[in-house]
Design goal:
single chain, mainly beta, six-stranded antiparallel sheet
């Protein structure tokens, strides 16, 4: 398998070295348009056996640019709001959202939050999931947090 989109750099995957039931490819297009995958025999210039247009899946957070402060409490702690943006919205995914900085928790004081893609609000093709974070007074760092996506109990994101 290799990407036929000339704006992508993807290492070919030899199907013979993969499990017989599945081939997993991680592809990140450099442009926001459809990606075409092709299956070839005899390497990069071999005959095309199959081709398919695939739509890239993205999961980003608006907090990568800015985080909204909803409330400042008398002690100086902050209640912040952020959103995860999934495109396209894929039903049946589980997301583990984790705070990674001391002094930052979710609004229920936990450091781990589980959400399903079923709880995302549909926005056409994609969806959004809003969550709130509490930041301790005097926090001298970013409101760092991340996520892992699971499908059928298997992590499918880094």
């Amino acid at each position: 398998w290799s990407a036929s989109d000339p704006w992508m750099q993807v290492a070919p995957v030899a199907v013979a070295s993969a499990p017989a039931t599945q081939v997993r490819l991680t592809i990140k297009p450099t442009w926001n348009w459809s990606v075409r995958l092709v299956g070839r025999i005899n390497g990069e210039n071999g005959a095309i056996l199959v081709g398919r247009v695939v739509r890239p899946f993205t999961l980003t957070s608006d907090s990568q640019k800015v985080i909204a402060v909803e409330q400042v409490y008398p002690d100086g702690s902050l209640l912040c709001r952020a959103s995860l943006l999934m495109d396209p919205l894929i039903v049946g995914l589980d997301l583990k959202i984790i705070t990674t900085v001391s002094g930052v928790t979710f609004d229920d004081s936990s450091t781990v939050r589980w959400a399903t893609s079923n709880t995302f609000l549909s926005t056409g093709n994609g969806g959004t999931y809003q969550y709130k974070l509490l930041c301790a007074p005097g926090l001298n760092s970013n409101v760092c947090h991340g996520w892992i996506v699971y499908q059928n109990g298997v992590a499918v994101s880094p």
